[in-house]
Amino acid sequence: MKRTLIWIGALLAGALLGLLGIEWLNDTVSYIASIYTRLFQLLAVPTIVLAVITTFATFGSKGSGKIFGRTLTYTLLTTFAAAAVGVLLFVLIAPGNLPSSQLTAFAPNLNTLSSPPSYSSHLISIIPNNIVKPFLEGNVLSLLLLAFAAGIGLSKLPDTENKQVVVKGLLGLQELLFVLIHWLIWTLPLGIVAFSAQLSAQLSAGVVADSIGKYVLVVLGGNVIQFFVVLPLFLLFRGLNPVHVLSKMMPAVLMALFTKSSAATLPVTMNTAENRLGIQQNIARFVLPICTTINMNGCAAFIVVTSLFVMQNGGIPLTLTSMLFWIVISVISAIGNAGVPMGCFFLTLSLMSGIGAPVAILGIILPIYTIIDMVETAENVWSDSCVAAAVDHDFQ
Length: 396
Fold this sequence. Notes:
Elements (H helix, E strand, L loop, with lengths): L1 H18 L3 H71 L6 H7 L12 H8 L6 H5 L2 H17 L4 H26 L1 H17 L8 H25 L4 H18 L2 H16 L3 H14 L2 H17 L6 H16 L7 H12 L5 H6 L3 H26 L2
Helix pairs in contact: 1-8, 2-6, 2-7, 2-8, 2-9, 2-11, 2-12, 2-13, 2-14, 2-17, 9-13, 9-17, 10-11, 10-17, 11-12, 11-17, 12-17, 13-14, 13-15, 13-17
């Protein structure tokens, strides 16, 4: 409770600093925020790899397979629900088309972005052809494949001294990693001040526009419903108290809000799940790295709503069948998306480019995507926490 109050105080202090509009202060907090983001990204990669390898190696692929099955089932369930809620709101609120003059005016925003790869290229890039490259690039899906292979391979080895040395070495590295994470979390109030001030300065500078208010209402409204209604109901059906789970996981959810990266937030999510929520260590260290990679509720909702909005503006008819089809596409795409900032934006841009839709609309969305990305990431980490809590409850 004390730590949560300190974090909330840091949040409010940062917001006030950002509203002052002092240029040197804004530059300073942006610098500090960048440092914290890089540090969490640094710890995220070894956290994912070591967690998966040690879980498989210690508990065997058979027991892990049952945990993975539950994790995948709950992930698909919550992600489909998020996409369906987004489509339902899109139909009810019915955002109108944008004038062609607005599309022309905002199209240059896309020029600042590199051309997105095709989705097939994205899938091919998951298969590593170099054992070092995924670590250098932070390719989470490739790292998961390597970790699965190494962990299962270790579990199949005879129980010899060599195997024990390797497993104990990996467990030792994991313990060292969590000491470093603990140190970083101890200094985190400074980082929260910086993140909050950075956001506050951006808002006061007019980052948020209201030209596509109904679209933003659909996206953010869908995230809010998923966050406060759908996921709590999911926990209630599993026999868990959603208020208790959310209160314990709030540090991770707040961290996700500011880092805009569920992968970068993973060290905090795992630490919070184990030490505050009381999830079993083997469950938390196996389920959460997987959820960070495939459980993208907010991303699925963004992809389906944005795709429908872009296609509608391009004159593509939206039937019930096509909407159901894009729900499936959005869920599959979200599962294959990396948990990094703007991952959903680039993925949607790639999908819309592939069907010839007017992607200039994404240039209008770009200036306000920072806010959308923050809310989505917080929802993703909250969903990860719900899945981990449910799996832990199942295996108690």
